[in-house]
Amino acid sequence: MKTIVVPTDFSPVATNAMNYAADMALATGASLTLFHVYQIPVSMTEVPVVMVSAEELRKSSEAKLEEVKKGLEHITSGKLKIYTEARLGNVTDELEELCNHLQPFAVVMGTKGASGMERMLFGSTTLTAIRHLTWPIIIVPPGKEYGKGIKKIGFACDFQQVVETTPADYIKKVVKEFNAELHVLNVDYENRHFKPETPEQSLLLHTLLEDMNPEYHFINHADIEDGIKEFAETNNLDLIITIPKKHKLLDGIFKPSSTKQLVIQSHIPVMCVHE
Question: Are residues 186 and 134 in the same domain?
Fold first, then answer.
């Protein structure tokens, strides 16, 4: 059975991502694993003092997970298989280890809460996971619902080294799973990134994805992230697939900039798939 992993810190933004993942799991026949990583708080005095025992934290974490699980089971009328796991440690390390064991279809996380503290804590956790986790991650914007499902998927591509860097098999798997349309998005501005090898690269990509019957869209925009975001919203895409290493989607997220960073500010879920 397919598995979807949902890391949670029990914040509103994480809860929203969990609800999105639950609806996705129901639609795809997957199970859900709710995952919480806790850390032992230490008071910042001259001599560090442990504020609470690891055993107390474990019991508290497991109790919260069980409460959330019961709530989901009630909402889904028991139609969804839900598992829970709480671990002590570093969020990204423990998440990677869990994923290596479960081999999930995807990890679903939220990003950017309403409060500054929530944004700093869970937002930075999501960013770290995107950078280091080798498993596909779907980032759900605040307030986004699964709704009628995923029917239109956009794949952001720069037509560079497509054979080496395009996770074609996984993209096909996702498109087939949701029986969705595939739209290949390429953003350029006045052909600044057009190279002699671009036509050949675009042909190679078409060969990789041709059985998905993709539609190609060449977007003229000075900013890649804004170009993708505007196209996605105008054309009602339900999911954007991107390869983090190939785009500067992560480099400037925390820099003060007028550029609306795709992952943080998109109203559409973004799936990060590594090469």
Answer: no
Predicted local distance difference test score (pLDDT) of residue 255: 35
Q: Are residues 84 and 191 in the same domain?
A: no
Prediction pTM value: 0.85
Same domain? 30 vs 135:
yes
Q: What is the pLDDT of residues 103-157, one digit of tens each?
A: 999 999 987 643 443 443 445 677 777 777 889 999 998 889 999 999 999 998 8
Residues 135 and 188 in one domain: no
Dihedrals φ, ψ of 71, to 5°? -60, -45
Residues 6+ apart with CB under 8 A from 104: 2, 3, 4, 5, 33, 135
Same domain, 163 and 113: no
**Domain of residue 210, CATH code:** 3.40.50.620
| Amino acid letter for position 29 | G
Looking at the structure, tell me whether residues 268 and 226 fall in a common domain: yes
pLDDT digits (tens, 9 = 90+) for 169-189: 999 999 999 999 999 988 877
**φ, ψ (nearest 5 deg) of residue 140:** -100, 120
Query: Measured between alpha carbons, how far is residue 40 from residues 23, 56, 106, 173 in Å?
Result: 33, 10, 28, 39
Does residue 85 register a pLDDT over 80? Answer: yes
Considering the domain architecture, whether residues 12 and 133 belong to the same structural domain is answered as yes
How many Å apart are CA 71 and CA 76, to the nearest integer?
9
Would you say 21 and 144 are in contact if contact means Cβ atoms under 8 Å apart?
A: no
- What is the count of structural domains for the chain? 2
- Between CA 14 and CA 20 the distance in angstroms is 10
Is the separation of the CB atoms in 240 and 183 below 8 Å?
Answer: no
Whether 242 shows a pLDDT value over 90: the answer reads no
Alpha carbon distance 18, 12 (integer Å): 10
